[in-house]
Amino acid sequence: MTTRLTQRDIARLAKVSQTTVSLVLNNRTAASARIPAETRDRVLKVIRETGYVADPLARRLLQQRNQIFGVFTYEPVFPSASADFYHPFLNGIEESAEELGCDLLLFTSAPVTDGRRLVFHDNNRLRIADGSLLLGRRIPAEELSRLVAEKYPFVSVGRRDDPDLPEADNPAGRRGDGPRRARATVPYVGADYVTATATVTARAFALGHERVAFVGPGEGAESSADRLRGFRQIAPRGLHLGPVDPSRQSSAASGAEDVGGADDGRAAPALGGREPTDVLAELLGQGVTAVFVEDLADAASLAEAATARGLTVPDDLSLVALGDASRPVAGDAEYSGFHIPRKEMGRQAVGLLEAILSGEERETQQLLSCELVEGSTLAAPKGL
Amino acid sequence: MTTRLTQRDIARLAKVSQTTVSLVLNNRTAASARIPAETRDRVLKVIRETGYVADPLARRLLQQRNQIFGVFTYEPVFPSASADFYHPFLNGIEESAEELGCDLLLFTSAPVTDGRRLVFHDNNRLRIADGSLLLGRRIPAEELSRLVAEKYPFVSVGRRDDPDLPEADNPAGRRGDGPRRARATVPYVGADYVTATATVTARAFALGHERVAFVGPGEGAESSADRLRGFRQIAPRGLHLGPVDPSRQSSAASGAEDVGGADDGRAAPALGGREPTDVLAELLGQGVTAVFVEDLADAASLAEAATARGLTVPDDLSLVALGDASRPVAGDAEYSGFHIPRKEMGRQAVGLLEAILSGEERETQQLLSCELVEGSTLAAPKGL
DNA sequence: GGTTGCTGCTAATTCGTATTACTAGGTCGA
DNA sequence: TCGACCTAGTAATACGAATTAGCAGCAACC
Question: Which residues of B touch A61 (CB under 8 A)?
């Protein structure tokens, strides 16, 4: 087994000291260490010939940068189920990393339990990367607060609520070095679901809809809560059909007719575990004419159920998709609603991380606007 | 900045040496160092109270491996065009890496020129990883031979021809440690296209087809060549419709009617740049009743063209897909032919890399069999 | 001719952990 | 009373790269 090449090997081959190799490698031109071109070239030649690169672990041990960005996904990335949804984020991340000349480290070593990964397990390798991007529908508050507390450089893809920082964290007496204020907030690049949802909801009212409903958890993950919030801004008394979960009956906005709604921290199952036909029946029973669905895939299920029942979309029922499909969906109807700027979120997240790493002062919480989609599933209700 | 808690801190608090902390932590019960229960408990208590965990970087520094597998893709991974095709490979890779507790490093830093990446550019970072997996339709021979020459541990996903190894490789005197022979061949986990293609071709003849054609480059990438080879085993005189490329008219098997066929190293464009209707016309003109298409997406185009022309598949024309679609394809017909065991290839490639890294003796070239698909596009020709 | 200053390097130290080698102090046996 | 042997630990070192301090050789200058 060929052992890893070290700076000492390079040094031997170039007939210099290990120190010199390091100096050349890091382009150190400080007064104390000027290397003449001849020596420098000799060293660089050997490096090129051998393909030597510094051991990332040794570098990180000394707090150096590695040009490696970590990507931590709270669910595995590549299974085809979630693939279509994750992909655009990663596409943006990949593109942007490429422009910056960075490699991406996927933390596949984090053990998966109950379908989720956790950053903090006994042997987490976050520090190999210069900083990391976090992806996932829902990220436990403990994880976020610990990341912030440890001052680990990271950016969340997707808005996250600020965890309450337990300030009584390190009784052993923090060995402070400098007056640098702690970032009190979670850095993220998210999508402005509130505005987008409010906009499309307003549009439905403008078209004449009076009885509207929101279908989806509406709480748990920030992305869900934000959408419900946008919906409520315009339709405070609109119906909310959450997932089936008797454990936590929520009663959100006063006077609003919330029916269930909870989230155990994992991705919500399709339509919260109900049959599309049942959901449809309930909606129709309540006289609803326009439905706002968190997940486009659920909208598709409802459309199918409606068609099966002899109804026409959007004449008999308008369907609005508050985002993209989280799982593959048949048919090629264009749903009214909006798209999540996933690729752009990925790109900007990388940019923000880079800014943080290079100490640049910048707003660390960003919301991108969603792209509204005219589509063909929202129209004036039949009666008009 | 609260600096990380170290073993020295624990040692100080427990009034022992750092060595003792390490011994306790790792449960070292070797004769040379037995720690009495009292001391052990004292140390463990401090560890519990402080929530100390060992820095994984420092641990790994002492071992030879970093638990990082590189993933080098000759085209960017995430763009949606190639996504559907790459995905299953990566799915298998991710799963397997997870089981081994390894992280995956995507070499996004390799600059993309002409839509491709190259491993060997002036500042390649391959050696950050313990070893790497290579993915791509076509991998230049120079790259492979250099990887082999440098004894870099890697596994190709997909069969590769052995490049002619220039044995005058390492004049600097190889630092051999042991009499271990150099691997003379490119390690890979591939799919057995030859057998699979031969099998489905034979099936077509068994059904009564006499005039058959192969559509696709048939050379360039190993995967293309293998399929054509399998086809030729059964149908030595079958028609071959390659891509339009006047630069290299190949005349492969003697007596065979090869019509063009070349590959500039990039993924072949759909149907080699021809119009599906033109290709269809040529096939029909030659009296072909069964067509074997390298790319399922091309088969779909042909099916569409056939339908447009009023023909029925498979009654008027049988279509066989020699693998999966390299780009998204509309419609949900199940094509006769076979599937590439992509996920399994990914899994096995990781396993093979791990075996190589741990010095295990094992066959370094593997071919997995393809899964035959009965499908609905291959049937006896009309006349029968 | 002795000090200063510059050039071109290198020795030594650091990061946090694991391992190896060793030591101080005691017991036992002959 | 000496050596062998055990116990309970610790000092020293290694891993690979970066940094700090410093050294040898030479030139310039008063």
Answer: 55, 57-58, 61
